[in-house]
Amino acid sequence: MHRPLVDRSAHVRGPLGAWDPRLKLLALVLFVCAISFLPLRSTSVVWGQHLLLAGLVLFAVLWARASAGVLALQSLLVLPFAGMVAATHLVAIGDGGTPLFAIPWTSLHFRYPDGGAERAALVLLRVWTTILATLLVIATTPLPSFLRALERCFLPQTLVVVIGLVYRYVWVLREEAGRMLVARRMRTFGGRGWVAQGIAGAMVGTLFVRTLERSEGVHRAMLQRGYCGSLPILDELRWTYADTMRLCAICLLLALALVQPLESGAP
After folding, report:
1. Contact 75, 131 (CB under 8 A)
2. pLDDT recorded at residue 102
3. CA dihedral 45, 50, 52, 54 (to 10 degrees)
4. Residues 2 and 171 sit within 8 Å (Cβ to Cβ)
5. What is the distance between the alpha carbons of residues 227 and 232, in angstroms, rounded to a whole number?
6. What is the pLDDT of residues 206-217, one digit of tens each?
7. Is the Cβ–Cβ distance between 46 and 261 less than 8 Å?
8. Phi/psi of residue 14, nearest 5 degrees
9. Degrees (nearest 5) of the Cα angle 45, 250, 235?
10. What's the burial of 6, exposed, middle or buried (CB within 10 Å: 0-12/13-18/19+)?
11. How do beta strands 98-102 and 109-112 pair?
């Protein structure tokens, strides 16, 4: 079965891979909360705090000895979607800012708000840093340990099982679709046009039927192997004193990143 690059990186035993998965999840949640609490203001202090948090994530990626290039490319894939959110800071309705255009026969006047580009850049930096931190946690945590950590963090067991099954078997669906594409190219000699589009439409229905049949077969195989509603995991998680000290150090670093804007008078 094909394994994604993130899952391959999870078997690289770096310094971060030895941490308790619950600690990495807590650190990720605290990091997301910390970067969300920073104000969206174009000041040197705010930019410094965002760059400091981004630098911490980049240092963690290099220190963990994960596939830094792969993680960077995967995190960049989210930027087009984040760009749509950041674009909302470039256009405003009402008074103030530079006039852009107005809709005739209405009172809607669109303007470019002051500092809109800087706020949009901060949004992109926030999203990219958060996605990179999330990918780092996934890349340094094997899937069974990651699911057990989610369950220990009081995530509903049904949701944990669904996440595990989707992550495992979405690649089976991908391979099935790949085989069907190869078969289509062999039967149409790589042709395009209306014929190829009609075949592609039929492939979607065939893929849905094969997915249903494959899911039934997988469920029967799981029942025969003793599946009773939860995925069995052999390795138990152990929280140590070192994990407690690491969590305290992470909280201290994030607190320092939030203290400076407050001391500088930023709201």
Report:
1. yes
2. 64
3. -170
4. yes
5. 8
6. 777 777 887 788
7. yes
8. -95, -175
9. 145
10. buried
11. antiparallel
